[in-house]
Specification:
8-stranded parallel beta sheet, SAF_PseI/NeuA/NeuB, TIM Barrel, Type Iii Antifreeze Protein Isoform Hplc 12, 13 helices, alpha/beta, EC 2.5.1.56, transferase, N-acetylneuraminate synthase activity, 2 domains, PseI/NeuA/B-like_N, two-stranded antiparallel ribbon
């Protein structure tokens, strides 16, 4: 992960609908959009949820029914061998492969496939899970949706108890699909940064691309955003995801904002140096003045001019004797006040 650019994760999640061929197409779309990584979700459905677990309200809305969560996830599950193939395909396409593990077995499986571990929001109080990831000694990106500040602190303490030197990035997140703007609370990302002195980012579930762009302007170092091939496909997350052309536009906008943020040093840019000579005014003669005359306020005009002293020297030349004649609108220079 480069420190000098925003790391953009295209969250494919389960938008492959359990079909590896769709997963390949999602990788292609992520590459075309110019993101840094494409991320999936790795789980064994029967180890992730019990047969009595209900679906979330947004899942019921998206699917139009209220079947058991287990049955839904079984249809969205990819085999471990599928992820090995997807990792290889990502390598061939020059994009980083990531996947969030949702159980201990998946943590172990993904260890050799990824440069980082991505902890989903739902696991932030799963302390055995957090300890197992900490043991792997890989950088961690942790989403914090649904969590209080004290829960984030406890999660970090749990990780640090196992591995005090692990590199951690915190993602502010609102776990609602889609997230209404009034629930985004982007300022909480800054709260995380100030509270824990860690680099932060934003995992977005809003519709559109405005909020992740704003997060970059506020200092997000990582952006994660769900995407799909088609919002009308069946599945729990498609409707709250970007389509490929939208993902590409988000990446373009983020890179533009990234450039616009600059380095923070307040000084004229290269292009401004030339413009400054035209835009800033100078001290010019208000009339024809003969040598030997004493300059008064009435003798000075402040106008744009190719040649002339800066207005900051206005008071300095008042009262000085002009040693070289000057014509009206001609710029004063120090030579006008010096002996030859």
């Amino acid at each position: 992960m480069k420190k000098d650019k925003v790391y953009i994760i295209a969250e494919a999640g389960v938008n492959h609908n359990g079909d590896i061929n769709i997963a390949y197409k999602l990788i292609d779309a992520a590459v075309e959009a110019g993101v840094d990584a494409v991320k999936f979700q790795t789980f064994k459905a029967n180890k992730l949820v019990s047969k009595y677990a209900d679906m979330a309200s947004y899942q019921k809305r998206s699917l139009g029914n209220s079947s058991e969560q287990l049955k839904m996830l079984e249809k969205l599950e990819l085999k471990f061998d599928d992820f090995i193939k997807l990792k290889k395909y990502c390598d061939e396409k020059g994009i980083e492969f990531l996947s969030s593990p949702f159980d201990l077995e998946s943590i172990k499986f993904l260890e050799k496939l990824m440069p980082y571990y991505k902890i989903p929001s739902g696991e932030i109080v799963n302390y055995p899970y957090l300890r197992k990831i900490a043991e792997k000694n890989k950088p961690i990106i942790m989403s914090t949706g649904m969590a209080t500040l004290s829960e984030v602190e406890k999660a970090l303490d749990t990780i640090y108890e196992v591995n005090n030197n692990v590199e951690i990035y915190l993602l502010h997140c609102t776990t609602n699909y889609p997230t209404p703007y009034e629930e985004v609370n982007l300022k909480a990302m800054i709260t995380l940064k100030e509270a824990f002195k860690l680099p932060v980012g934003y995992s977005d579930h809003t519709l559109g691309i405005e909020v992740p762009i704003a997060a970059v302007a506020m200092g997000a170092q990582i952006i994660e955003k769900h995407f799909t091939l088609d919002k009308n496909l069946p599945g729990p997350d498609h409707k709250a995801s970007l389509e490929p052309h939208e993902l590409k536009e988000m990446v373009k906008s983020i890179r533009n904002i990234e450039k616009a943020l600059g380095n923070g040093i307040k000084k004229p840019n290269k292009s401004e140096i030339e413009i400054k000579e035209v835009a800033r005014k100078k001290l010019v003669a208000a009339r024809d003045i003969k040598n030997g005359e004493i300059i008064t306020e009435k003798d000075i005009s402040i106008k744009r001019s190719n040649i002339g002293l800066s207005p900051e020297y206005y008071e300095i030349i008042i009262g000085k004797k002009l040693l070289k004649k000057i014509k009206e609108d001609e710029g004063f220079t120090w030579n006008h006040f010096m002996e030859e």
